[in-house]
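hey so i finally got around to running the thing on that chain from the lab meeting. sorry it took forever, my laptop kept dying and i had to restart like 3 times. anyway pasting the input first so we r on the same page abt which one it is
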Amino acid sequence: MHQQLTDQWRDAPTQDLIQFVLTNFHEKHRQQFPELIQLARKIESVHNDHEECPEGLADLLTEMSNELESHMMKEEQILFPMLAGGIYPSGPIAVMEEEHGEHDIMIAKLAKLTRDGKAPRGACGSWIMLYEGTQDLIHDLQQHIALENEVLFREPQAVPQHGSDFCCGSCQ
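ok and heres what got predicted. didnt touch it at all, straight out
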């Protein structure tokens, strides 16, 4: 699902990939959550008597937003500067990957609560917008996580240098 994006960035300079993540994911998530939380609160308030009302959606989105903001700040302030400098610290990377696993669990809860973005028959425009927005968020978060786990957090393999890393035997 995200293979095309990861393949596209696999050989890119780390600094370019970091900038892409900041612009296309971090900034975008910071815009997505407030809008979705506001819509969720509206739907939960107006349609609280509907049997398919996504009760607790605004709270889940708020929790996800808070967790993700903390996560992104750690990346921006600590990990990304290290990666940009060619340092691949296994401890902080392991922590970020573990948090990505926690984000995956929250994404699954979001998908379940919104019935995979399927608004009920006759849903109002706001409800439809909310579910479309949550599907976009899920897609973006999944791409974000895949790109970081599969590309950004993987230390580039150094190209062996003849003479310093190996010898073919003809130097002797």
